[in-house]
Design goal:
Number of strands: 5
Number of domains: 2
Distance between the termini: 35 Å
Strand order of the largest sheet: 2-1-3-4-5
Structural class: alpha/beta
Radius of gyration: 20 Å
Strand content: 5-15%
CATH architecture of the largest domain: 3-Layer(aba) Sandwich
Mean pLDDT: 87
Largest sheet: 5 strands, parallel
CATH topology of the largest domain: Rossmann fold
Shape: globular
Helix content: 40-55%
CATH class of the largest domain: Alpha Beta
Number of helices: 12
Length: 250
């Protein structure tokens, strides 16, 4: 699942964009939002999203300035810009700075948005479904402790802020160091652990899927089904049926 930061000072516009398509089915999650470039830059340090979708004209720090600031830290960060028809010059400048696409706010269609996300997906490195923290022995002592904590508590409601309090570390530093050492952000690692636990629990035919969803820490069954399908290209019910069929053969 790919992470997205949405940056726009116009709340109705950002809400409309969120409702335009089913983001999870497209393989993306809007993990963080910001109302101006300055706030976005601060949150970028914490969340390190795969994609930033930003308006170009905003107070405090506009989209162009945001791009320049982020690119100093990560030259490969992917951007898509939002603009109005009368602000197309801003969009052109963003494209010159390396934005991969632009969308005109008043005329975005679901298909345009899906096509844009497919383009983004093609530019991102392939996602690994391997066991999170496979290189745990090489981590620093603090990040190793965080990883071990997540392995034991991934089914709980864990936020970056709560995790930072547990380990007495600033959340920005924690988020950055964790991703640098593990290659995955904290939110993604929790999802990975939950999905792998779900596969193990589905092997027990006595367990109801609804109970499994609750046991691994999900409160929204539909969200779980979407994620499982995205991770393994098969529904939980189909996966269980395959296991049962294999057991009958043996």
């Amino acid at each position: 699942m790919r992470s997205v930061m949405l940056v726009d000072d116009e709340r109705p516009a950002s809400e409309l964009l969120k409702l335009l398509i089913n983001w999870e089915q497209a393989g993306f999650i809007i993990t963080v939002e910001a109302s101006d470039g300055d706030e976005a830059l601060e949150k970028y340090q914490i969340y390190s999203p795969d994609l930033i979708i930003t308006d170009v004209q905003m107070p405090v720090l506009d989209g162009i300035e945001l791009m320049r600031a982020v690119r100093k830290e990560n030259p490969n960060q992917l951007f898509v810009v939002l603009s109005c028809h009368e602000l197309f010059d801003y969009a052109q400048e963003a494209l010159r700075l390396g934005a991969i696409d632009y969308l005109i706010k008043d005329s975005i269609t679901p298909q345009q948005l899906i096509n844009m996300l497919k383009k983004v997906e093609s530019l991102l490195p392939a996602q690994s479904m391997s066991q999170p923290f496979s290189g745990i022995a090489s981590y620093s002592s603090r990040i190793r402790s965080v990883a071990e904590y997540l392995l034991k508590n991934f089914d709980q409601d864990i936020s970056l802020s709560s995790l930072a309090k547990v380990f007495n570390i600033h959340k920005v530093h924690l988020a950055r160091t964790f991703k640098e050492e593990t290659g995955i952000n904290i939110h993604e690692s929790i999802l990975d652990l939950r999905m792998q636990k779900a596969k193990l629990l589905l092997a027990d035919p006595a367990k109801k899927i609804s109970d499994i969803i609750e046991e691994i820490g999900f409160h929204n069954p539909q969200y779980f089904y979407i994620l499982f399908k995205k991770f393994y290209d098969i529904s939980p019910s189909e996966y269980r049926a395959q296991l049962e069929k294999a057991q009958i053969k043996h």
